[in-house]
Amino acid sequence: MMLLSTQLTAVVLAMAPSLVSAGMFPKDSLVKALDHKSFKQAMKANETSLVAFVAPWCGHCQKMVPEYSKAALGLYPLIPTYAVNCHAEKNKRLCSEQGVQGFPTVKLFPRGNSMPPVLYEKERTATGFWYFATRGVPNALEKFSYVDQIPGWVSGKQKKYRALLLTKVKKVPLLWRVLANKYSGTDLLFGTHRDRKGKSSIEMGLEAGGKKEAKVLLYPIGSTTPFRYRGILKQDSLSKFFDSVLDGTADLSEVVEKTKEEEYVENPEEAEIAKKQEAQRIALMHGGFTDMVDFEKAMLAGGAADYHDTHGYGGMMGDIPGSLKKAKAPETPGVSAGSATITEHPATTTTAAEVSDAPESVAATVEPTKAAPKDEL
């Protein structure tokens, strides 16, 4: 009877992949599990990503999970956060190729396959992971301190498209840095200028704009006259727009006009994630300061307090334009913020005492005396 039950369980698991999604990470975690195939696919994307190579039996890995999940929430959706189960037979070759000698091993891949990964060697905290990832996005844009520097860049780079961001905030938004990195090596160049009070916009023949308003200008190849992008300043919307521009099959004026028609639809799942991010991101930034006094100074200086003003909600620059708040997606019963991510199963036993913060060696992958760890995260 026991054998039959075991066989039946194995069949059910084989037929229902959703039931074997991860157990190390909680079901609402935004960490995505990768195997040897999906890892290669993820690395084809020209983007910065954070990857943890782990094993279910590893005590240090289990200890890291809450911190890594917090970092994933703060990084979402601009910097994907992944985990690879090196205990699974199908992933062992991948982990060996990535030079994994102990668990956990965390690496930042600055630009997919096109740049070598960087090993994370500091304390495994959410703040540490978050700063490591956000500061690890390669610089692939021109930053103009003065408005009179822009014409030279525009006229000198006419063999390519040029995308210029006029922003009211001090720091370059992470979204713009991520996009510049993504399109690095293409016929699209990125630039940014801080237009704090809108004076630069006026000098360029535009309106000053609202307090938090950002503007995106696109200069066609061979032209110094820009088109004004008037769509949603969100990662997926801007990516779709830039892809259309680079595709070259449509008239640019038509492409720009189409961006005006896009409606902002509030997805309940994304809204819930954004709500959690508000507190989480401030907490992550707080962790980067040595004491509360430094953090309070940063708050007063607009450091942590205006995080969303700078980096946006859910990967959007600035606030949602009032004219775009047109629709709300219907609520879907039973859908959680992490329904498409890793889910939970009973915790596995560990094989080594957590006596230090050093990664547990691959050589220590002794089968536990109780139940063998599952191959899924």
From TrEMBL:
Keyword check for tRNA processing: no
Molecular function terms from GO: protein-disulfide reductase activity
Record bears the keyword Signal: yes
Compositional bias per record (Low complexity), positions renumbered to this chain: 340-353
Cleaved signal peptide residues: 1-22
SUPFAM superfamilies tied to this protein: Thioredoxin-like
Keywords attached to this entry: Signal
Annotated Gene Ontology cellular component terms: endoplasmic reticulum lumen
Region Disordered, residue ranges: 326-377
PROSITE patterns documented for this protein: THIOREDOXIN_2
Lineage top rank: taxon: Eukaryota
A Pfam cross-reference name: Thioredoxin
GO biological process: response to endoplasmic reticulum stress
Protein name: Thioredoxin domain-containing protein
Organism from which the protein derives: Hebeloma cylindrosporum
